[in-house]
């Protein structure tokens, strides 16, 4: 193995919990601070690679010098321009090889019009191309059209192209669909002879692009012509079953028909056949739960090892909307997963770890979650988690830790994970605050505000601010902690009062004002507390609670501010509050008032 030395060296290096994800290391300025920025930066980096690749492929004449020794062929420009001129089958094969959909169709039509016969092999290759792209344009052709759009000057040209770009965005959002009587269907109909490959290609193309009923009709035509389908075609048809039948029983019956046809046609099933069957059983309700394990046993009988997608389908079938009291199935799955290091075999393999961690959260089973995490870190299994799935996986794991573990363990994991392998979501911060509350470790709250909520951009999240202020103001703490709480309250007040073009001001609520006033009062910041009560409460037409006024009166007494106490009594009296008489009595009793003040 050429990479053996590098792999051995890499195995000696552990992850640095203080460093960001490796893809952001090139530019420290662009190290993201939250999940949204991480997604944006990672997509931007990939877009930059694609842009560089586009420039190299479109302008290869500027990259004719080779400085690398030995030459790295994959990094050099590829010759994608057709070299064969004229109307011939060789030219058609070349354009098919370069994936030029429109040029290939035009050249094929020219050959047909000229009466030049096209071989069955070449026509099947053209069908492969058309069915893969859904009769649309390949990526290369789209890039060339965009290049032409950019080269067209003038305002009128941009006005003409605007609706087209809008349509392209809409079509991309819904995915390419199979058009009625498209080029693939047209060419298939005029073929002088068709073999099994022709029918199989059309079936797979129709399934891929959503024409499920047409795919089934095409399969019936294949049988009528006494052809045999290949395993990939059967896999596609089994995947299409939920879109052909509505009732759960009918879906599984149709899937069994296809499986029986495989036996009759002596087609050996592969891993993707069983995964397609399980994927269909996901949409069969109770029928799926009764048949899924039989499918797995059939796999074992044929000596086919399950992939991560197999286990993902099983977890979905047995833990989605069913009784979650038992963790037996996921434990059995982990027994097998722990023994292996997986390689990608199915597109759905990437979903397993996130799905399994969600099951652990639903079961509230932290031991199984630890086992799952250990299996994920084994070998190259971690590569199945891209940026989005990685964040979802760790977010669920951390929520489970907050729910089930001791606070010291939670904080240790949080320190190792936060901003290095995942970016906490607002729910994670809420879970952390609730875990701190349950463990009576509220002295950590100010550091959560400073180091996490502000840095992650959650300083304007109303639900988090309410939870944070509620915890800090619920009861009195030692003076040092109360000062830290007051500093947090001052920051939150600043967030509400800041005005900028890019951000709308945060709306005050009565509870928020009450919490902030309490925190100011408990550290002797009488003027700040009075400003909140007089100015802000009146601004939003709210009335401070009895607790807020009592705490303010206590603060005024500690700071020897009888004038502020009198203002409070006048405010309560002007609002007609029942507590005004009690506040008046407290003021007369606890303060030394002059005759004028009395």
From TrEMBL:
Residues 141-175 are annotated as: Disordered. Its main location: mitochondrion. It is found in: Mitochondrion. GO terms for cellular component: mitochondrion; ribonucleoprotein complex; ribosome. InterPro entries: PPR_rpt, PTCD3, Rib_mS39_PPR, TPR-like_helical_dom_sf. PROSITE patterns: PPR. GO terms for biological process: mitochondrial translation; regulation of translation. It holds the Pfam family Rib_mS39_PPR. PPR repeats lie at residues 195-229. Keywords: Mitochondrion, Repeat, Ribonucleoprotein, Ribosomal protein, RNA-binding, rRNA-binding, Transit peptide, Translation regulation. GO terms for molecular function: ribosomal small subunit binding; rRNA binding. NCBIfam families: PPR. Belongs to the mitochondrion-specific ribosomal protein mS39 family. This is Small ribosomal subunit protein mS39. It comes from Pedionomus torquatus (Plains-wanderer).
């Amino acid at each position: 193995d050429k990479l053996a030395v590098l792999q051995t060296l890499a195995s000696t290096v552990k992850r640095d919990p203080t460093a960001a994800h490796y893809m952001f290391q090139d530019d420290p300025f662009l190290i993201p601070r939250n999940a949204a920025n991480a997604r944006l930066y990672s997509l931007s980096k990939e877009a930059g690679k694609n842009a560089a690749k586009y420039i190299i492929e479109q302008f290869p004449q500027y990259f004719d010098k080779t400085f690398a020794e030995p030459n790295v062929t994959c990094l050099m420009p590829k010759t994608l321009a057709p070299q064969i001129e004229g109307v011939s089958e060789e030219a058609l094969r070349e354009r098919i090889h370069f994936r030029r959909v429109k040029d290939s169709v035009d050249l094929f039509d020219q050959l047909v019009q000229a009466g030049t016969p096209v071989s069955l092999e070449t026509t099947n290759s053209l069908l492969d191309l058309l069915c893969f792209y859904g009769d649309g344009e390949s990526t290369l052709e789209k890039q060339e059209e965009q290049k032409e759009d950019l080269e067209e000057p003038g305002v009128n040209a941009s006005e003409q192209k605007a609706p087209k770009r809008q349509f392209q965005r809409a079509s991309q959002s819904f995915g390419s669909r199979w058009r009625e009587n498209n080029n693939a269907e047209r060419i298939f109909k005029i073929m002088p002879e068709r073999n099994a490959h022709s029918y199989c290609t059309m079936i797979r193309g129709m399934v891929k692009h959503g024409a499920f009923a047409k795919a089934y009709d095409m399969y019936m035509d294949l049988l009528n012509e006494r052809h045999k389908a290949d395993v990939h075609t059967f896999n596609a048809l089994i995947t299409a079953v939920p879109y052909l039948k509505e009732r759960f029983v009918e879906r599984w019956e149709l899937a069994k028909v296809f499986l029986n046809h495989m036996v009759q046609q002596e087609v050996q099933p592969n891993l993707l056949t069983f995964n397609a069957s399980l994927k269909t059983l996901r949409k069969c309700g109770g029928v799926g739960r009764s048949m899924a394990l039989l499918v797995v046993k059939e796999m074992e009988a044929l000596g086919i090892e399950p992939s991560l997608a197999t286990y993902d389908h099983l977890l979905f079938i047995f833990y989605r909307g069913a009784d979650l009291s038992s963790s037996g199935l996921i434990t059995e799955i982990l027994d097998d997963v722990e023994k292996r290091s997986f390689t990608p075999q199915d597109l759905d393999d990437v979903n397993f770890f996130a799905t399994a961690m969600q099951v652990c959260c639903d079961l509230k089973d932290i031991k199984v979650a630890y086992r799952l995490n250990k299996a994920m870190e084994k070998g190259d299994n971690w590569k199945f988690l891209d940026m989005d799935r990685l964040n979802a996986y760790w977010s669920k794991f951390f929520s489970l830790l907050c729910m089930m573990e001791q606070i010291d363990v939670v904080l240790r994991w949080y320190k190792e994970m936060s901003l290095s392998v995942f970016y906490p979501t607002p729910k994670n911060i809420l879970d952390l605050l609730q875990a701190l509350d349950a463990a009576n470790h509220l002295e950590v709250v100010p550091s959560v505000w400073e180091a996490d909520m502000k840095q992650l951009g959650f300083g304007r999240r109303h639900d988090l601010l309410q939870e944070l202020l509620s915890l800090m103001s619920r009861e009195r703490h030692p003076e040092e902690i109360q000062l830290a709480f007051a500093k947090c309250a001052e920051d939150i007040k600043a967030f509400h009062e800041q005005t900028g073009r890019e951000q709308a001001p945060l709306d005050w609520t009565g509870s928020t004002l009450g919490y902030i006033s309490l925190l100011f009062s408990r550290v002797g910041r009488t003027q700040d507390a009075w400003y909140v009560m007089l100015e802000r409460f009146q601004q939003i037409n709210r009335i401070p609670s009895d607790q807020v006024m009592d705490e303010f009166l206590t603060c005024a007494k500690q700071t020897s501010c009888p004038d502020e106490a009198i203002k409070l009594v006048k405010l309560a009296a002007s609002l007609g509050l029942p507590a005004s008489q009690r506040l008046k009595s407290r003021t007369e009793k606890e303060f030394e008032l002059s005759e004028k003040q009395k």
